[in-house]
Amino acid sequence: MSPRRHLIRPCLVVTMAILAAPTGPRAQPAGMPPTPVRYTEAREHAVNRVLRLPGAVESRTAGVVSSEVAGLVIELPAREGRTVRRDQPLARLRTTALELRLQAAAGQLREAEARAHLAETTLARARELFAQKVTSEQQLDDALSELSAWQGRLETLSAEIERIKFEIDRSTIRAPYGGTIIAERAEIGTWIDIGSPVVEMVSMDELEIRVDVPERYYRNLQSKGSVTVTFGSLPGLEVEGRVSAVIPRADPQARTFPLKVRIPNQGGRVGVGMLAEVALPAGETYRATMVPKDAVVRQGQDLVVFLLNGDQTVERATVTTSEGAGSWVVVEGGVKAGQKVITRGNERLQAGQPVRGEPIEYALP
Predict the structure, then answer these.
(1) CA atoms of 99 and 105, how far apart (whole Å)
(2) Which residue in 115, 181, 185 sits closest to 151, CA to CA?
(3) For residues 209 and 227, what is the distance between their CA atoms, to the nearest angstrom?
(4) Which of 6, 22, 91, 335 is deepest in the core (most CB within 10 A)?
(5) How far, in Å, CA of 169 to CA of 71, rounded?
C-alpha cells in the first residue's frame, strides 16, 4: 500500500464518524450534575372570563385643515408624513396684494386723522363764535357733522387695517394641534379659496379603539374601566387602555354596542387603522387550570410549559394561554392541576433532561 493511501484512510474514518453523529436534541454530558430549577404546582382556580374582541385604531383628533383666506400657495413647509407641532406652519399664501392694500389703508388713515383733527379745531371755533352770537346754529351743526363724519371714517379705516392684518396673518396656515400629515390637499402654485382644504392630519399622541360589543355583554360594560389591548402586527406589545365611552345605541342589524377605548401611544408604535384585540371583563367566572406566567416559555411558534416528573426529569407540554390574573395565567393543553411546572431555569431545558428542583411560591390572584 502506498504512503498516500495510508494518509487518506484516517480522514475517511473521521468523516464517517461525523456523519454518523446524532442530530437530535443535545443530551446533557455524562457526569454533569442535574440542572437546578424552581417549580410551582399548577392550580385550579376561579377565573373571571375575558371577552376578546377585535377593534380598529382611530385618532381622537383628526380632520382636514382648511384655509381661512383665499390666495396663491407659494410654500408648503409640512409635507405628507411629517410630524408637526401645534401652530407650526403648514402652508403659506402670497400676501403681496394684501400688503399693498395695507399700505394704502394706512395712508388713508393718516389723512383721515389729519382731517379729524382739523374738524375738531373748526368745531371748537364754531362753538366760540356761536356763543358770541357771531355764527348761526346751522354753521355749528355743520362743524359737528364734519367731525362726526371723519371720526366714522377713522373707525372704518382702522377696522379695514385690522382685517387686512388678519388676512396676512391667516395667509400662513398653521397646525391647529400636534400631529402627523397624512395627505396633502393643495399644491404650490394653485389658487385656494376660503374653506379650501390644505392638508389632512391626525393626532398620534392619544388614540382610541372602537369595539363592537355583543348586546349580551352590554350590562357588564363600565365606563372608565381598565382593559388590555394587543396588536397582531406588533407581537409582544401589550397596552393598558381605559374605556372612554359606551355608546348606548345598538347597531340595528348586528345588535352590537359601540365601545371606545383610549390608549397612550408612547413612541408612536401604534398607527391609525391598525387592527387590535381588546380584552374586556365579561362578568362571568369559570374554573380553569392556572400556572405562573414565568412557567410559559416560547419555543419557535409554540408556547411550552416544562413539567417536573417524579424521577427528576422534565417533560415538555405545548399549551395555549388565555385569561391572566396577577402573576398567573390560564393554560389549556397538557397541564393538569397539581402537576409541578418549572418557573425558573426553564429557558434552555429539553425533554428528558435531569434536573434538581426546589419549590417556589407564587401568590394566588
Answers:
(1) 10
(2) 115
(3) 11
(4) 91
(5) 12
What are 18-69's pLDDT values in tens digits? 333 444 344 455 556 889 999 999 999 988 878 889 999 999 888 999 999 9
CATH 2.40.420.20 assigned to domain 35-49+287-359? The reply is yes
| Distance in angstroms (rounded) separating the CA atoms of residues 120 and 126 | 10
Instruction: Reply yes or no on domain 52-60+203-284 having CATH 2.40.30.170.
Output: yes
Domain with CATH 2.40.30.170 in the chain: 52-60+203-284
Inter-axis angle of helices 137-170 and 96-131, nearest 10: 160
Overall residue count recorded for the chain in this entry: 365
Most confidently modeled of 47-56, 65-74, 206-215, 242-251?
65-74
- The candidate with the shortest Cα–Cα distance to 355, out of 24, 39, 40, 23, is 39
CA 311 to chain CA mean position, Å: 51
What percentage of the chain reaches a pLDDT higher than 90? 59
Please count the other Cβ atoms lying within 10 Å of the Cβ belonging to residue 324. 17
Q: Is the pLDDT of residue 365 over 60?
A: yes
Amino acid 9: pLDDT: 40
| 22 grid coordinates | 446524532
pLDDT at 7: 36
CATH top class, domain 65-92+173-201: mainly beta
Give the mean pLDDT of the chain. Answer: 87
DSSP state of 352: T
The span from the CA of 57 to the CA of 270, in Å, is 8
Distance CA 329, CA 116 (A): 85
In eight-state DSSP terms, residue 218 is G
User: Average pLDDT for residues 341-347, to the nearest whole number?
Assistant: 93
Helix then strand count (H, E) for the chain reads: 3, 21
Architecture per CATH, domain 95-170, reads as Orthogonal Bundle (1.10)
Domain ranges in the chain with CATH number 2.40.420.20? 35-49+287-359
